[in-house]
Amino acid sequence: MLLLWKPVVQRLMSETKQRLKDHNKLDGYVAIFLLSDDRASEVYVTLKSKYAKKLGIYADIKFGKDRDVDEIQEELMQCNNDLACLGILIQLPLADRLQTEQYRLLEMISPDKDIDGLTSRLFGQAWFGREFLGATPQAALHILDHYDMWDVLGKVCMVISQSNLIGKPLALELMKRGATVISTNSKTPAEMFQEWFDRSEYIFAATGVKHLIHPDLVNENSNIKNKVLMDIGRWSDEDGPHGDVDRQRFADKVRGVTPVPGGVWPVTVATLFHNIVKLHWFSK
Amino acid sequence: MLLLWKPVVQRLMSETKQRLKDHNKLDGYVAIFLLSDDRASEVYVTLKSKYAKKLGIYADIKFGKDRDVDEIQEELMQCNNDLACLGILIQLPLADRLQTEQYRLLEMISPDKDIDGLTSRLFGQAWFGREFLGATPQAALHILDHYDMWDVLGKVCMVISQSNLIGKPLALELMKRGATVISTNSKTPAEMFQEWFDRSEYIFAATGVKHLIHPDLVNENSNIKNKVLMDIGRWSDEDGPHGDVDRQRFADKVRGVTPVPGGVWPVTVATLFHNIVKLHWFSK
Description:
The structure is a homodimer.
Chain A: H1 5-22, E1 29-34, H2 39-55, E2 58-63, H3 69-81, E3 85-91, H4 102-108, H5 120-127, H6 135-146, E4 156-160, H7 167-176, E5 180-184, H8 190-199, E6 202-205, E7 228-231, E8 235-237, E9 240-242, E10 256-257, H9 265-281
Parallel strand pairs in A: 1-2, 1-3, 4-5, 4-6, 6-7, 7-10
Antiparallel strand pairs in A: 8-9
């Protein structure tokens, strides 16, 4: 079964909209700091801007690749203190000359407005129980929630990535949900990789290795029809975008698989804005 | 081989002392808030106090089980701002009437003085790369460091516990060190437990289940002489203190095993005070 982005985004959008309306926040805005002239960043910011418009709110893009750090900080503080500002994000990567300031700039964002989940305080609060997760790993879980595959209690989950933004927080969230978690990296011995592929009911991959999860891994021990394959991330080569999972050859065989393109990635923007709901109207 | 606490504590004590001396901090103090009349807590606080004395610094015990929350908070703030205060800890559990204030009180501690590692900000900073870990999981790693077993890069590590204070931060730290990590809980299927015991080079157990790791687990696939068994925590029953590992029957067979009593637990107090060094004189 293919796990598709559209119904998930529709649900997230309608819930976000409704909550913003319920709380009279449709006149609010999200501040997006675009502090580089990176072309890809501009595209992402445009996508986010368009999504905000669909929600009925405004994306205030703060350009600043050439501005003083002091000035950027001042504007960040204004956004922190402005009740109409619903969320703040700093689009990464920053311009070269601002790279050394990245940590300090991110840390200035109020955890209550940090919809990207990049401040250490919000990470720490999530550790201690606050319901929050960064947009990309959360997007994968929104898809599982939508397809009623959310209950990982007692299940074996393999997380193929130990990145700070995807692998580690995802592993932590799965532990919070009571899963047994296998966290692997590029140094994991190949024979164990095979064994754990067989043993895992959920596999989350975010490595960029094209078709790391391929049908040759499947054998009589794999229990393949019971597996959920979450392909996180989106990479490109000369043949176009691809994922970690060779999904075309899995689609009919597994319980669920997210395609690339069309799975987790398009859900991240909707998740980013849904994080406004999480930060403002969920318990802390 | 038994991995013993004494040489580790000696090393930690001498390093802590030296650093305090180098930085002219031997006139400093650690503030310990004792906000209950829990008997075990009193014992722990006395142990910490004695250890401080050995270092040549002072443990200022702030009693407060009957005091107003406002007053406690004020004193916490004073300690945060006092340059002579090297570290702050709140001994848990709190008195019943203070339970609801626990999170707020802990969060007031400056991350730079939080030697217990219980503030969300410090957790978050550790996530993003600051070298810091709470006393109990860090104690286990100090032992590994001392016995030159610290290099877990590419190794398979099984962490049997998903607690916020031991299992989760330990799993995260092992990921930071490049290990493949298997994080299990009480719902992990038994047959996989056996398989992963065989596959793991390092096993960290902190469950309280007496002799969960027992010789019957060993078979021809276990590669037992290559294993390091870290028994974290200390529990008691009618026969006295025990650990998760039936170490008497492992001592001659494995690469390393920490005994209970006498392994990780007695290193935690020394680690707590060594965390002053980590927080003040390591890079942030």
